[in-house]
Amino acid sequence: MSENYVVTVENLNKYYGKRQVLKDVSFHICPNEIVGFIGPNGAGKSTTMKCMCNLIFPDSGTICIGGYDILKERDKALSCQAALIESPGLYMDMTGKENINLIAKMRKVPKERVNELIEFTGLDKKINLKAGKYSMGMKQRLGLAIALLSKPQFLILDEPTNGLDPTGIIDLRNTLHNLVKEEKISILFSSHQLGEIEKLANRIICINNGRIIDTPQALDGNMHYILQVSDVINTKKILEQRIANDKIEVLGTDSLKVMVDDQELFSESLKEILNQDIKILDIYKMELDIESIYQEVYGDHHE
Ligand SMILES: Nc1ncnc2c1ncn2[C@@H]1O[C@H](COP(=O)(O)OP(=O)(O)OP(=O)(O)O)[C@@H](O)[C@H]1O
Predict the structure, then answer these.
(1) Do the domain assignments include residue 301?
(2) Is the pLDDT of residue 303 over 50?
(3) Does any domain span residue 292?
(4) Mean pLDDT value across residues 90-107
(5) Do 137 and 28 reside in the same domain of the chain?
(6) Is there a contact between 99 and 146 (Cβ–Cβ < 8 Å)?
(7) Does residue 62 share a domain with residue 211?
(8) Which pLDDT belongs to residue 219?
(9) Which atom of ligand 1 is nearest to 17's Cα?
(10) Is 299 inside any structural domain?
(11) Are 1 and 72 found together in one domain?
(12) Which residue has a Cα nearest atom 3 of ligand 1?
C-alpha cells in the first residue's frame, strides 16, 4: 500500500448466494480528498461501504484504512474512520447533548472535543432539545458530531443528502468542506444527486454492476473553479464584469463556482477581487462535469 493513501481497497469480491455483487473492486483515497461514489441503483455502492465499515465481510480482497488492514487489525483500522450509513442511531427520548455525551463517555472523549463539535455542526442552540424533536437535518448533524468524536482521518457517508431540504443540503456541504479544511479529513460519500456530487467532490469513483469503471476525471472545456471568499455578493459582481453570469453560481454563504473558458479573464477578475480588499480564503480547480461524465460512463443506463 502506498503510504500516501488514507484508504486502499483492493480486489474486493462479494457474493450474495450465487450472485456476485462486487467484482474485483479496487480504488484508493488520498488525504484531504472528497470523493463522490456514484452508480445506478443496485450497482454496489452500499455493499462496498458496508465492507469498508466491517458491517459485512467480503469473500476476498483487502481494505486498509489509515494503513491498517481492516480484517487483520480491525480495531486500529476502524479507529481511523467514522461512518454514517443509513440514519444515525440516536436515542429519541434523550436530548442531543445527552446523546453525544453518552458516546463521548464510552469513548473517553474530552469535554472540549464534544463542545467543539456541537459548535462546529451548528447544534449549539438546539442541543438541549430531545433528539425526537429534531428535524432530519439536525439528526444528521448530531449523527455527524458523534461520528467525529474520535477525530477520524476518514469519513464514509452513504447518501448523506437523502431527505434533506435545500437549506439542509447547503449546510451539510459547508460543514463537509470546512471539515476537510479544519480537521484534514478525507471523505467518501455516495449520492444520486449529480449536482450535489459536482459541488462537493474533488473526484468521483463510478461503479456499475459491481465493477469499478474507469472514469474520465477531466472533460475538455468543462473546467471550473470553486472560490471561497469573505464577500460572495461583491465577488460575484466583479466576476460578472468579465464572465457571463450563467457561468457563475453561488454555492453557499462563502463560496461560488465559476466556469472558466478564458484563464486570462479569470486571472484579471481575481486581481480585481483582491484589489477590492475581498479575502480569497480558498480556491481550487475542479475538472468535473458530473452530468457529462455520468452520461459518458453509463450512457443510457439510467437509474
Ligand atoms: N442483504 C442482501 N442480500 C442479497 N442481496 C443483496 C443484499 N444487499 C444488497 N444486495 C444486492 O446487491 C446488489 C448491490 O446492492 P447495493 O445496495 O450495494 O447497491 P447500491 O449501489 O448501494 O444501490 P442504491 O443506489 O439503490 O442504494 C443489489 O443487486 C442488491 O439487490
Answers:
(1) no
(2) no
(3) no
(4) 93
(5) no
(6) yes
(7) yes
(8) 41
(9) 4
(10) no
(11) yes
(12) 16
Best residue among 41, 191, 213 to mutate for probing ligand 1's pocket (most ligand atoms within 8 Å of CB) is: 41
Rounded to 5 degrees, φ, ψ at 107 are -95, 5
* Ligand 1 pocket residues where CB is under 6 Å: 16, 21, 39, 41-47
Rounded to the nearest angstrom, the gap between the alpha carbon of residue 161 and the centroid of all alpha carbons in its chain is 10
Range with lowest mean pLDDT among 50-54, 64-68, 255-259: 255-259
Tell me: do 60 and 115 sit in the same domain: no
Q: Which domain holds residue 156?
A: 1-80+152-216
What CATH number should be reported for the domain holding residue 162? Answer: 3.40.50.300
Q: Which atom of ligand 1 is nearest to the CA of 49?
A: 18
Same domain for 71 and 8? Answer: yes
What is the Cα–Cα distance from 202 to 254, expressed in whole angstroms?
Answer: 18
Ligand 1 center–CA 42 separation, angstroms:
5
Look at the block and give the residue holding cell 452530468.
291
C-alpha cell at 48: 462496498
Ligand 1 centroid from CA 22, angstroms: 10
Q: How far apart are CA 148 and CA 245, in angstroms?
A: 38
Q: How many domains would you assign to the chain? A: 3
Question: What CA–CA distance (Å, rounded) separates 86 from 74?
Answer: 22
- Establish if 240 belongs to a structural domain: yes
Which residues, including other chains, have CB under 8 Å from residue 23's CB and lie 6 or more apart?
13, 209, 210, 211
Asked if 3 and 76 sit in the same domain, the reply is yes
Looking at the structure, tell me whether residues 62 and 162 fall in a common domain: yes
Enter the pTM of the model.
0.75
CA-atom Rg of the chain in angstroms: 20
Report CA-CA distances (Å) from 265 to 157, 197, 241, 268, 289.
37, 27, 10, 5, 21
Protein residue whose Cα sits closest to atom 25 of ligand 1? 41
